[in-house]
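To fix ideas, we reproduce below a protein record of this kind.
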Amino acid sequence: MIVRIMIIAAVAIFLVAWVRAVMDVYGRTDLTRSMKAAWAIIMLVLPVVGILTYTLVRPAPQRR
């Protein structure tokens, strides 16, 4: 029972991270359409590696 709850929690956390990363990619104005599509495809084909890579290489958000 505990294992099932942990798996569901891990999947939920992953889905939230994936949706957040995809929304971040499409919300950026410094990327071209082709770069946005490339990041989305990378995150779709290799989800864990794609999300981690994007999170590590993206620039910091601009402070106002």
Remarks:
- The first helix runs from residue 2 to 27.
- The chain has a mean pLDDT of 89.
- The chain has three helices and no strands.
- The two ends are 47 Å apart (CA to CA).
